[in-house]
Design goal:
Shape: globular
Number of strands: 46
Length: about 800
């Protein structure tokens, strides 16, 4: 029902409609994977306005917006329900400005009678054209992401994806002061640390190489975790995803999404300072600035910079460095979006080989958790550079083209002292010294078209395209054995006469490989009434040529099937089947190779629900994963590099997650995972039926935050990880429970927080291989954070 402006229970704000100017643009696209073609598309430009709408009550903000934009705007006053807006400032097209004004309100604007109607947001409602590939950034500031690119290769609402996709957004990352990739583990059901390296367990399966940055593979050095304090979000696509990404492990794929430019001005300076209570401190400063470059808002920029200096509670362990990430987007209209992005990291840290223990230990606690064999002067120094170019281009009203190209280089120098063979005393170890350099380059690209069309009563969202990758990596190693004896009961960490060591080059040095990957894929998301059916297939060809060796090649055809039933606009049920494939080319004869490829299959059903006007996301999943021909550590005395192949492993589990707002004042991030991960076939018959290494049966976490008043809030939480097996029979890592709490103070510009983690100062171990190499978690830590936005 409509009434005169600003009167009664609903409002219609009337102004004369703006004239729409039509222009034709000629687009010429050089296709990196094809001979090249020209595409001409008529595009409709969207006039850009300058808006200044202050934060405050949403109804008055909408009135002011309508006057500025000159549009008809209607809504039911009851749906505003005392909602507020964070305001709007900058150059925007009308639709984008209106959506930005409504961010965080659970409302959406839809075109109606030449203007817009504001209403409660339902799944599938959109205001601006969905991107085929992520070029401009996510303006929303909620704890969960409503859409994902990584699960279907085009922007899709999370309730319409027939698979579990967990997201840790920048809001959770900043609130919890998360710095490294493994820090996200407590906030994702079914994920826990396997070690302190880039090494996680997902649904019972070790996962140390399935990393993507903006959906594209980079070189993973394994020994240090990616730095995440300045990323947009971390996504975990659960289960094998060979159809999406080619080479894919059974537990899932981790995708790190960098921050992209926004069409509003946002600037933030942030600082963190933390202490373990023993004089060891950690410090971070970071800058995030974004906004339009020109008045029309067709050029957008973003610049992230950070510098950190972290001491560890463990002896001689540290991490310091800096990162720079400039990004520029050109968005002349909704039809054309182009992004150029660079990221550079310079890092000086160490390779922590873990806490050594008594050689015959069957439990932990005798040796203090700060004991480390690392000596002064040891270091792991590296430089990491990524450059990428992404394009999202409309070809017609029904078809869009997505393309991305990425270059990644990595240079590393490692010097370390590490535990070697144990001596009869049980507390003493020979120490080995190593000096290693590694260089790697990766060039990757993808190009695909997305089409939206109908055949009869069936709607289609078709994706067809291909991708390619070439990667070269080479490492050179020198070392010296038995340089001194280290006693875990009487540890000494002193400057060592490294220059006096006689270094030799092992016969395996240099090592590395040239890897080439090519894939072609097609996927269709079909909608008929309340049902969606997703079907996709991918052909992949893999080639690896080891340094000094012969070329190895293999190919795979991977299938993906899924269905979604939309029971209501905010509740869906799904089922899925997906396959995984991992070639195992990289192992030398000395390491036990060559090995057959590892293959996997996923069966999953689940439900997803957006409750409380879309403010809370609840997901539930039941899954069964079968993994065949797994390369695992042989655990042979005297040959720590020897691997072998296990016949089959299976994982069955339940995952529950809840994230978002329960009320206007109470928010929650909670999850629970039950997992049975077993060895089902093994040449060592006594291993069959045993629980897999690093796979807890139960894990859970909860974090709740309550808004005491407009500025002050408090949070409390807990994390639990169950008992885990290691590679040594009879030596298990104990379960642990950590308690956390925080106070938060927020104004329009300032955000202050004081966090306490592991409040009971519990000794615990987040991962480990065997008694001589376990990884203790952080003791009691206090973190003070401050940020200023302008």
């Amino acid at each position: 029902m409509n009434h005169p402006p600003f009167r009664g229970q609903s409002c219609v704000l009337r102004r004369s409609p703006l004239a729409i100017a039509l222009q034709a643009a000629t687009l010429s696209i050089a296709l990196g994977l094809t001979a090249g073609a020209q595409v001409f598309a008529a595009t409709e430009s969207t006039e850009v306005h300058q808006f200044t709408v202050p934060a405050g009550p949403l109804d008055s903000a909408l009135e002011q917006f309508a006057r500025m934009a000159g549009v008809n705007l209607s809504y039911e006053a009851s749906e505003l329900n005392s909602k507020t807006t964070k305001g709007l400032k900058g150059s925007y097209a009308t639709q984008e400005a209106l959506q930005q004004l409504l961010n965080g309100t659970s409302l959406i604007a839809v075109p109606e009678n030449g203007g817009y109607r504001v209403k409660a947001k339902l799944r599938g409602d959109e205001v601006v054209t969905l991107q085929a590939i992520e070029v401009t950034g996510r303006a929303s500031q909620t704890d969960f992401a409503e859409t994902t690119f990584s699960a279907t290769k085009t922007e899709t609402h999370i309730l319409d994806v027939p698979q579990t996709v967990n997201t840790v957004t920048k809001e959770v990352i900043e609130e919890q002061s998360l710095l490294l990739l493994n820090d996200v583990a407590p906030f994702v059901a079914g994920v826990n640390e396997f070690s302190v390296y880039d090494d996680l367990t997902i649904r019972g399966f070790r996962n140390s190489d399935d990393r993507r940055v903006n959906g594209m593979r980079v070189y993973n050095n394994f020994w240090s975790q990616p730095y995440i304090a300045n990323v947009e979000r971390v996504e975990v696509i659960k289960g094998p995803s060979a159809m999406l990404y080619g080479q894919a492990s059974p537990g899932g794929v981790i995708n790190i999404v960098t921050k992209k430019p926004l069409n509003e001005s946002r600037h933030e300076i942030r600082g963190d300072l933390s202490s373990f209570g023993s004089g060891k401190k950690q410090g971070l400063v970071a800058l995030d600035t974004t906004g339009p470059v020109n008045e029309s808002g067709t050029f957008l920029y973003r610049f992230n910079a950070s510098k950190w200096d972290h001491d560890s509670f463990r002896t001689e362990i540290f991490d310091k460095g800096y990162s720079l990430s400039p990004s520029l987007s050109w968005v002349p209209s909704d039809d054309t979006r182009l992004n150029l992005e660079f990221s550079y990291t310079n890092r000086n840290t160490v390779l922590d080989r873990g806490q050594p223990n008594l050689a015959d230990a069957d439990s932990l606690g005798t040796i203090p958790i700060d004991v480390s064999v690392t000596q002064p002067g040891d270091g792991l120094d590296y430089e990491d550079l990524t450059a990428s170019l992404s394009l999202d281009q409309a070809l017609s009203d029904q078809w869009r083209l997505a393309a991305a190209f990425q270059y990644h280089s990595y240079d590393e120098h490692l010097t370390e002292h590490r535990v070697g063979s144990s001596l009869p005393s049980g507390s003493e170890y020979n120490v080995r010294y190593g000096d290693r350099t590694t260089e790697a380059e990766t060039l990757s690209g993808t190009i695909y078209a997305t089409g939206h069309f109908d055949t009869g009563h069936i709607s289609h969202k078709l994706v067809v395209g291909g991708d390619a990758l070439t990667q070269e990596n080479e490492s050179r190693d020198m070392g010296a054995n038995n340089v001194f004896v280290f006693d875990v009961l009487n540890p000494e960490n002193i400057s060592r006469p490294v220059e006096s060591y006689t270094l030799t080059t092992p016969s395996s040095s240099p090592w590395g490989a040239e890897n080439k990957r090519v894939g072609l894929f097609i996927q269709d998301q079909m909608t008929l009434g309340d049902w969606d059916l997703l079907a996709g297939v991918r052909y992949s060809h893999f080639t690896t040529t080891p340094v000094g060796g012969e070329e190895n090649s293999d190919s795979d055809l991977a299938l993906r099937l899924g269905t979604v039933y939309r029971h209501t606009d905010n509740l869906s049920f799904y089922g899925t089947y997906a396959e995984g494939f991992e070639p195992n080319f990289g192992y030398t004869a000395q390491e036990g190779g060559p090995f057959a490829p590892t293959t996997s299959r996923l069966y999953e059903v689940g439900a997803k629900h957006q409750a409380f006007d879309g403010d809370l996301l609840f997901t539930a999943a039941l899954y069964h994963i079968i993994n065949d021909d797994i390369v695992t550590w042989a655990n042979v005395t005297g040959n720590s590099d020897l691997m072998r192949q296990r016949g089959q492993e299976q994982s069955t589990g339940l995952e529950l997650e809840m994230i978002g707002k329960l009320t206007d004042r109470l928010s929650i991030v909670a999850n629970y995972a039950y997992n049975e991960a077993k060895v089902t076939k093994d040449e060592v018959k006594e291993n069959e039926g045993k629980t897999k290494e690093g796979a807890p049966k139960h894990a859970a976490s909860i974090w709740t935050k309550y808004q005491l008043n407009q500025a002050l809030s408090m949070g409390v939480g807990a994390e639990y990880v169950g008992e885990r097996k290691t590679f040594q029979e009879g030596f298990d890592l104990p379960s642990y429970t950590l308690y956390n709490a925080g106070l938060f103070y927020r104004t329009n510009s300032w955000n202050l927080s004081l966090m306490g983690k592991n409040l009971t100062d519990e000794d615990h171990w987040t991962g480990g291989y065997y008694p001589g190499r376990v990884y203790p978690g952080n003791p009691l830590q206090v973190i003070l954070s401050a940020s200023y936005s302008f």
